[in-house]
Hints:
Layout: H1 7-20, H2 32-71, H3 78-87, H4 94-103, H5 105-116
Function: Binds directly to 23S ribosomal RNA and is necessary for the in vitro assembly process of the 50S ribosomal subunit. It is not involved in the protein synthesizing functions of that subunit.
Subcellular location: Plastid, Chloroplast
GO cellular component, one term: chloroplast
Amino acid sequence: MTRVRRGYTARRRRTKISLFVSTFKGAHSRLTRTITQQKIRALASSHRDRGRQKINFRRLWITRINAVTRENKVFHSYSRLIHHLYKKQLLLNRKILAQIAISNKNCLYTISNKIIK
């Protein structure tokens, strides 16, 4: 059987993969088998972490709101503030509340006073 030269196809496939991992260190950016493993791992991690990012930001916003509410004696806790917001049907999500809490604490205080009255 004659020898088949398939270097161009294989090289094109390998360079396409190596462009993805060009910033990785050591063998992870040089050896073909390791490159493919690292690419699979990187894509899996990015897919997982996009979901985790949403969870982490929500936790951050809740922590910020809770810190300001306890500091200014707006309510006793974050959970009571959110409960009263839902009771009064004020549609403010946690991201907006956290931005208000950081930038303008008096505004959060007036919102809480409106809820109470």
